Amino acid sequence: MSQRAKPPDDIAPKDFFARWVPDAVSSDPTRQRRLGETNACIEFELEGGGELEGAGGVTFTVRIANGVVEGGAGPAAAPDLRVRLSVDTWRALNRGDLSAPEALLRRRVHIQGSFLLALKLHLILG
Questions:
Q1: Is 4 within the bounds of a domain?
Q2: 70 bridge partner residues
Q3: pLDDT at position 1
Q4: Rounded to whole angstroms, how far apart are CA atoms 6 and 126?
Q5: 8, exposed or middle or buried, with CB in 10 Å at 0-12, 13-18, 19+?
Q6: Residues 26-63: pLDDT tens digits?
Q7: Which of 51, 58, 70, 119 has the largest CB neighbor count within 10 A?
């Protein structure tokens, strides 16, 4: 099995959501297959960390529709799933130091909305 692409350790959150995620999904047949017929809007709220603008954190939105993934800064009007986590947890997940299920069990990731979408998201991005 080939090693799946992982984001650079120092990637900025904005670059991750706006460029890296869409590129990673579009260039990986396994992620494309797992995406299937998913149509969803997912909001990620990253909290803490000196690299974020504002004291409360920053929000990014990922939209999945018609086999295409797009991401960018800002909240969604009506997301199907909200994911809230710290920058440190987000980086640990990206590095593979922490699994998504473990992060949920340890309450380092908080989700609101479709739990099934959250599981599928892990399969697409993780």
A1: no
A2: 63
A3: 36
A4: 9
A5: exposed
A6: 888 888 888 888 899 999 999 986 555 555 689 999 99
A7: 58
Q: Across residues 67-85, what is the average pLDDT?
A: 93
* H-helix or E-strand spanning residue 35: helix 29-35
Question: How many independent structural domains does the chain possess?
Answer: 1
Task: Indicate the average pLDDT of the chain.
Answer: 86
Instruction: Tell me if residue 83 falls in helix, strand or coil.
Output: strand
Query: Considering the entire predicted model, what is its pTM?
Result: 0.87
Domain encompassing residue 56: 13-125
Sheet holding 68-73, edge to edge: 68-73, 58-65, 40-47, 81-86, 109-113
- Residue 23, token pair as written in the block: 């590129």
For the chain, the residue count is 126
Quote the CA–CA distance of 66 and 61 in Å, as a whole number.
17
- Asked, for residue 3, whether it belongs to a domain, the answer is no
Domain presence at residue 5: no
2 within domain boundaries: no
Label residue 43 exposed, middle or buried (CB < 10 Å: 0-12, 13-18, 19+): buried
- Averaged pLDDT for residues 108-113: 95
